[in-house]
Amino acid sequence: MHVAHLSLQDFRSYATAEVALEPGVTAFVGPNGQGKTNLVEAVGYVATHGSHRAATDAPLVRQGAARAIVRAGVVRDDRRALIELEINPGRANRARLNRSPVPRPREILGMLRTVLFAPEDLAMVKGDPGERRRFMDELLTARAPRFAAVRSDYERVVKQRNALLRSAAAHRRSPGAEVLATLDVWDAHLARTGADLLAARLELVAALRPLVARAYAELAPHSGAAGLAYKSSLGDEPLSTDRAQLGERLLKGAAEARKQELERGVSLVGPHRDELQLRLGDLPARGYASHGESWSFALALRLAAFELLRADGDDPVLILDDVFAELDAGRRARLAGMVAPAEQVLITAAVPADVPGELTGAAYTVADGEVRRDGARRDGARGEGP
Ligand SMILES: Nc1ncnc2c1ncn2[C@@H]1O[C@H](COP(=O)(O)OP(=O)(O)OP(=O)(O)O)[C@@H](O)[C@H]1O
């Protein structure tokens, strides 16, 4: 699939912007702080209904404006769809598909699929486990949009269960039969929704493992092998992906943890406490990998995500935000070779020399609040050989 047209209104630094796009490579080039990332962030927002660099929607709306609108014309198998999202911080966002309102924005998740790699992704390797859980859950949602509901059901259960545990812990005396009975009900909800989430993650990690290893080996052939291990809060015993069995394990885990949970006032068992461990050779990547290795690992995770989505039947739009400047010449050339065949690749770079010569295509200059199409097709920067 590819985006044929992007239209912005009061999104980030743009009062308005209209950008026509084509399949193949498009580079957005311009000095720092001119709005290159804002453009690709908008494309990512249409796909995921979230930003890769803001936890809430408020920063996405141009300062002084009440709402932002992002529209994308998406072409998939020669069929066109016009997706429109109205971003209303503090209120419900609205969505339209082919100019008709849809009841809930979530219903059009999956109409556009993107894989976005940006400097913030270093946190997937160096940051806390929540970053890697988010990577898994966002990828699951990209593959099957109905997963957004599984995820939010589970989050709601943990939130409510935590509230109950917190208030029990605050009273500092043994909880009464009523509290324990309510907790039993929440344990059952946790086991049911948690089993769905856990099974999906285990299947995902199994599918990703060989793809990550291969992408990393291609990017960084002289480094150790990249591995993934799913560490569950249920302990080290192997887990099957059978949902009924996982539900039983979660119930048992919650029962065993109950005393401690009541003391601490927090849910200690379940996929919200799990970790996706990244390994380079025999060592964990976090805390051991060099900056370059961490960067390559994060890229390998995104490239593996791209492969997985592509295997589901359609190339997602690949977005590389400010990526090449960080890489040495060899990794740059290898990455360029790996991404060139994608149906659409959107790249941002501060200077033309940061776009590898292998990636020829359309070019825009982004400066002074404008996005201007360069006259000639860009032939790529020269002298970027490995
Ligand atoms: N909500 C907003 N309202 C107005 N301006 C904003 C808003 N959010 C971000 N900006 C402005 O957008 C600019 C940043 O744009 P962006 O991150 O796209 O830059 P960039 O061209 O990718 O730069 P770099 O090369 O440094 O990564 C900043 O000047 C910032 O002040």
UniProtKB/TrEMBL annotation:
Q: Where in the cell is it found?
A: Cytoplasm
Q: Is Cytoplasm given among the entry's keywords?
A: yes
Cite the RecF/RecN/SMC N-terminal domain residue spans from the record.
3-349
What Pfam family does this protein match (any one)? SMC_N
Which residues are ATP-binding?
G30, P31, N32, G33, Q34, G35, K36, T37
HAMAP family registered for this protein in UniProt: RecF
Q: Which family does it belong to?
A: Belongs to the RecF family.
Its function?
The RecF protein is involved in DNA metabolism; it is required for DNA replication and normal SOS inducibility. RecF binds preferentially to single-stranded, linear DNA. It also seems to bind ATP.
Q: What is this protein called?
A: DNA replication and repair protein RecF
Source species, please?
Answer: Actinomadura parmotrematis
